[in-house]
């Protein structure tokens, strides 16, 4: 006997409100197990794999790949009773249980203080967390008056949103739902039909790119940061010839044999040392208080195909140099592969952006929201430089430090930047100041 359950898009953390369906790992008719990955979603921060909270057979996928879905909206139906998958989509009234990871609704009961079970990712299945709606009366509901045809397209709000996200014109679709209303399946069919009109990616001499996911989150965060925190940026040119020599020597040590050593490693170590000397640089503005963080979670800005993200190395200040090198390499690889977890992208306290990899000298970086400072590391190039009283060709870079002037004044900002520059000019200072 069939027993159907719908799984609603959960909040996987950080106050998620919506996510895009990136890739389904199951299809209608597939058997699924508890904690089996069924779908990849793209949140405002990362791509997350969602596990199935129950065992059974997939009967319906309620959201298409590329569709943006609000938290709490059903995305898949699973038959947990062992029945065969129905040929037609199941009416909502036929669903016995509805997994609800959102605030409870009137007339529904919830368990007291449920405990999470271990799962593969994100959130877990709550024992007894499925919420059962009150049984419907056996008496048929009163007949509803038939709507007058006013020429307006009949479609529920979620269906309209799906059509908007997929670029489908509802006025060109003939609905197959009750009273001629348009359903999700109608939109999917219209989108897949060869003759169906679709919004072109390029119109005339313009191209319109939807802003969503990471790009949308980054845009909102940068606007919020730029217009709430008073930014100040200072610049410093530094002779890093000795730093480049130190990088080459570190590569020959057995402790670094299995990890990539780059100049960014010493820049990170120099900033961590400067923060230890000037703790106010590792702080946040909290209304009427400045909160100085004891732990340094070092963010590294990474350019990915999905946009700019800033994963961070937890407790970077406590890591010896070989461990810091390993953490830096792992973080960069994870970010570029698109597998950074929401936890990797939250909780940062200060950030480095390596603009030198793009072949530029420096920039004026925008502070990551909630932090007090961000350091830009420019390209290292040969330049004429006065060294020990004589003109010579040296390895030179430009550093730029942007800071929140509510927390860091000009004197403190200058000290932090000066210290970082001094350590990159002579790495021995890192030993003396640690």
Automatic annotation (TrEMBL):
Keywords: Acyltransferase, Lipoyl, Pyruvate, Transferase. InterPro entries: 2-oxoA_DH_lipoyl-BS (IPR003016), 2-oxoacid_DH_actylTfrase (IPR001078), 2-oxoacid_DH_E2_comp (IPR050743), Biotin_lipoyl (IPR000089), CAT-like_dom_sf (IPR023213), E3-bd_dom_sf (IPR036625), PSBD (IPR004167), Single_hybrid_motif (IPR011053). PROSITE patterns: BIOTINYL_LIPOYL (PS50968), LIPOYL (PS00189), PSBD (PS51826). Coiled coil: none annotated. Residues 154-191 form the Peripheral subunit-binding (PSBD) domain. Its cofactor is (R)-lipoate. Gene3D superfamilies: 2.40.50.100, Chloramphenicol acetyltransferase-like domain, E3-binding domain. Residues 82-156 are annotated as: Disordered. One of its GO terms (cellular component) is cytoplasm. The keyword Transferase applies. Its EC number is 2.3.1.-. Residues 89-99 have a biased composition (Basic and acidic residues). One of its GO terms (molecular function) is lipoic acid binding. Residues 4-79 form the Lipoyl-binding domain. Belongs to the 2-oxoacid dehydrogenase family. This is Dihydrolipoamide acetyltransferase component of pyruvate dehydrogenase complex. It comes from Actinomadura macrotermitis. The lineage of its organism: Bacteria, Bacillati, Actinomycetota, Actinomycetes, Streptosporangiales. The gene is pdhC.
